[in-house]
Amino acid sequence: MIYLRAIHPSDRKSLREELFFKLSPESLRNRFFGLKLDLTPGELSYFTDVDFLHHVALVAEVDCCAHRRLVGVGRFVRGNRKSEHAEVAITVIDDFQGMGIGSLLLQQLIDCARQLGVVQFEGSMLAQNSRMAKLLHKTRLPCRSSRESGVVSMSLDLRRQAA
Ligand SMILES: CC(C)(COP(=O)(O)OP(=O)(O)OC[C@H]1O[C@@H](n2cnc3c(N)ncnc32)[C@H](O)[C@@H]1OP(=O)(O)O)[C@@H](O)C(=O)NCCC(=O)NCCS
After folding, report:
1. How many domains does the chain have?
2. Residue 162 belongs to a domain
3. Does residue 163 form part of some domain?
4. Which residues line ligand 1 (CB under 6 A)?
5. Which of 27, 68, 78, 121 has the greatest count of CB atoms below 10 A from its CB?
6. Whether the predicted pLDDT of 162 surpasses 80
């Protein structure tokens, strides 16, 4: 069973220990565009203490040895609280990739975004990150992309329902 819920400031420790430290070098590169050894206290606050208007973040958990283990996180950040455009990012730990968790997080983020009046998701990914590209295409929403210096910028139109 996979559980999705809103992120909470108390997730700092699990975000760092159960998710960040469990990412392979490839996943870290895909998420942060470079190798990253740790999250700073400031980054942990930024990632977990969100206002759900300008910055919305959800976590995915699974049952593990009598507790819930954090295995994925997805977020979108708007330019400001009223912006119709938001930058989306999703991360699932390697051991749980390919099980549909990224798709679940993305769908839930799309639902939240629509309720807040967001009409476009934007995302930047390394050109070789075919998994994230597939994830966006799988929504079957209109998707535009452009490529520059090994980075693909994609935008997803949330106004339409899936084709
Ligand atoms: C991109 C990412 C979020 C996808 O999450 P996920 O939970 O693996 O996604 P899903 O299981 O919903 O799979 C989506 C599609 O990706 C592909 N995919 C996912 N994992 C894969 C794997 N291990 N091998 C091959 N293809 C894979 C599949 O084609 C799948 O489509 P399908 O259901 O038709 O088979 C995850 O790979 C990840 O966290 N990567 C590292 C961080 C990153 O790149 N984030 C994106 C930039 S912000």
Report:
1. 1
2. no
3. no
4. 27, 30-31, 89-92, 97-103, 125, 129, 131-132, 134-135, 138
5. 121
6. no
